[in-house]
Amino acid sequence: MVFFEIAIAITIITALAIYLIHPDLHSVVKSASDAIPNEIENKSGFTLFIQYILNNGFKVPLQMFILALIPVPFLYLINIFYTSILPGLLYGVAYTLDFQKGFAITIGSIPHLFAEVFALCLFASAIYPINLWIRNKIFHRENNSTFWFEIKLFLKRYILYVLPLIILAAFLETYVADWITNLMI
To answer: Which tens digit of pLDDT belongs to each residue from 73-124?
Structure first.
């Protein structure tokens, strides 16, 4: 839960900073659009839904898993914080350009944002024991389990909790976010 609270705080702080500082909006928008994976750009409908699942359900978790294998605590949180900064940039730019549209965009994307960030935070909590096991092994501390036990437990959590939330987030991002935003504009 702490990871989730920090991630949402990062989104809010980023949005406020962009709104209050008024940086060069062209460069901010270009930076944010450069961060969008090529597989997702120019897609729509079911294809976009599948691409979101592939990116956020497999590609990002794989990156986090690889970072968790490095015996540095919480290194795998980089992806969560990066995922939290991008909506903050979007919100800040949207509020700067048109406050009403910025509010509509924020309300429309909150369900997706919460589902996606919460899923990634659950993933981080699922890989934490693996990272801890590796650190304990390196520093010759007592481990009460085996590496394969931790991997099996991690996979169970990923399949039962994280992946369904990622699918829900992809659905919300693909179909619901624009619908809510358009209702409010």
So the answer is: 999 999 999 999 999 998 998 898 889 999 999 999 999 999 999 999 999 9
What dihedral angle (degrees, nearest 10) is formed by the CA atoms of 63, 59, 83, 91? 160
Question: What is the end-to-end Cα distance of the chain in Å, rounded?
Answer: 33
Name, in order, each residue with C-beta under 8 angstroms of 100's C-beta and a sequence gap of 6 or more.
185
Which secondary structure element, helix H or strand E, spans residue 112, and what is its range?
Answer: helix 99-138
Please give the structure tokens belonging to residue 165.
């939330």
185 CB neighbour count, 10 Å cutoff: 11
pTM to 2 decimals? Answer: 0.86
Cα 120 to the chain's mean position, in Å?
A: 6
84 touches 12 (CB < 8 A): no
Spatial separation of the C-alpha atoms in residues 44 and 151, rounded to whole Å:
35
C-alpha R_g of the chain = 18
Contacts of 42 (CB under 8 A, 6+ apart): none
What is the C-alpha separation between 71 and 39, in angstroms, rounded?
A: 31
Contact 166/51 with Cβ under 8 angstroms?
no
Tokens of 5: 């609270």
